[in-house]
Amino acid sequence: MQKKILLIDDEKKFVHNLQMSLEMYGFEVLCAYDGKEAIEKFYSMEPDLVIMDLVMPNFDGDKVAMTFKKVQHGKNVPIIVLSALADERRVEQSMRFGVDAYLTKPYDLDELRAKIDELLGAQES
Amino acid sequence: MSIVDKIITCNKRMRQIINTAQKIALSDVNVLITGENGVGKNFLAGAIHEASNRKDGPFIALNCLAIPENLIESELFGYEKGAFTDANTAKKGNFEFANKGSLFLEEIGDISLAAQGKMLKAIEDKQFYPLGSEQPVHVDVRVISATNQDLKAAIAGKRFREDLYYRLKEIEFYVPPLRERKEDIPLLLDHYIEMFCIESKKPKMQISNAALSQLLNYDWPGNIRELKNSVRIAVFLNESRELWLENFPFTLQMKEEVLVEVSHTEMNLDRNIAKHIRLVYKRCNYNKTETASMLGISRPRLDRYLKSFNIIVEH
User: Fold this and answer.
1) Residues 37-56 of A with CB under 8 A from B
2) Does the pLDDT at position B254 exceed 70?
3) Chain A, window 70-109: residues with a beta carbon less than 8 angstroms from a chain B beta carbon
4) Cα dihedral angle (B69, B73, B75, B80), rounded to 10 degrees?
5) A28, B194, B255, B315: which has the fewest Cβ within 10 Å?
6) CA B123 → CA A17, B23, B149, distances in Å?
């Protein structure tokens, strides 16, 4: 079955480009451009995986990721953070909220793809 | 205004309720709203009225629990001048006030059986007789009622009329408690923080990560009403741009839970055994036989404990 990915970032162009790449890989891609919209889409569309930035309007990414991880209704949806913020403290903080992977921008599409496959594979097994 | 715009939620079950309510609002069916205290039953009732064709008519809300039993009938149906000793003037009842609109009856499970009978008749006949009147009053009212009680149990216990129950719940909406839709907590927090910052003329505050984490863990027994009141107090107490857990009124209670969670020494069994023995030993004035008996263990066993925990007589 086609897997659903929720892509969250306030940079529209970035979202658009990544959306096209992911759709070429065969994923269904939902997009959200701020924290509030992200929370709404996560719970109404029930994606299989989330790719998100940390800095965005209406709830920063930390709070969004924390909510996703704490309130799952019996599922465990993996989260990949894709952020320009690369300092260790930041990475550590996100990991504490339960984020599954932390990749930095500019991203490498192959690396991202491998991470997605790994996390979705782990989810199935 | 659509119901979707009035009710803050991203929960799937709530969305289904709202979608159905939006459609049903345009019909005239009577609605029963159930759910725990503080889940926002009155909000849904108001939103159904606003989304209905009756929106330009009155929305009359009556809390049945707040009205003494002997007054409920006159509150609902009114009375004629001279109907009873103090009835110097005639009074309209809420059924009449709600004509061409909606009558919202809160805590419907708490009205007397006598009033239930009259209410059933008024709903069925679309008319009623005010106390002391022989002239029927015709009304066009949609009844929305709400309760936190289990009306089926009330029916079984003969406290609620089954025929009225089915009249009132032509459709029923069960509003789930906040603990079953915790994903709404961030949205509700944001909404109420903004609302109370404006009310108290303070700059918009953000919730801290640590506070959000605890508020997501908390079960909110008082539901949205409790969250709203907590935010009001937190905003009032806070002077910085970020809201901390300490600003919330139930901080102490949560701190205790956190302590149990994080403090490893407090959870260590041996440490607690030693502490307990020390306490009992002291209370028994360091009499070993008495201490062993009080602890329900043998004297040699107590000796072993005293030795291994290095408990000595403290004078």
Assistant:
1) 39-40, 42-44
2) no
3) 70-71
4) -130
5) B315
6) 60, 22, 21
